Amino acid sequence: MGVTSALVLFFVIWFLVFLVVIPIRLETQGDVGEVEPGTHAGAPENHRLKRKAWITTVISAIIWVVIAFTILSGTITIHDIDFFNRMSSH
Fold first, then answer.
1. How far apart are the C-alpha atoms of 39 and 45, rounded to whole Å?
2. Half-sphere exposure of 22 toward its Cβ, with a 13 Å CA cutoff?
3. Helix or strand holding residue 45 (H, E)
4. What pLDDT, in 10s, does the model give residues 16-51?
């Protein structure tokens, strides 16, 4: 796995984890009881994005290390997931 592939893998994992982490412990304007006129009650009041970005980075790094180790060690190869036998040599 090259440097570019490693970075792309990390950022894809980071983005997916971030989408999961964003709604955790989200306080909406409706929850707080202070709905700003012209906004929806479900709009975030305290989103804590900086903290969630750090949490996402830590979780993503752990997941990335596991996946990168699996790829680099050869534990699972592309031939292991070639269910239709398209990569066999003819």
1. 11
2. 9
3. strand 44-46
4. 999 999 999 888 888 888 888 888 888 888 888 999
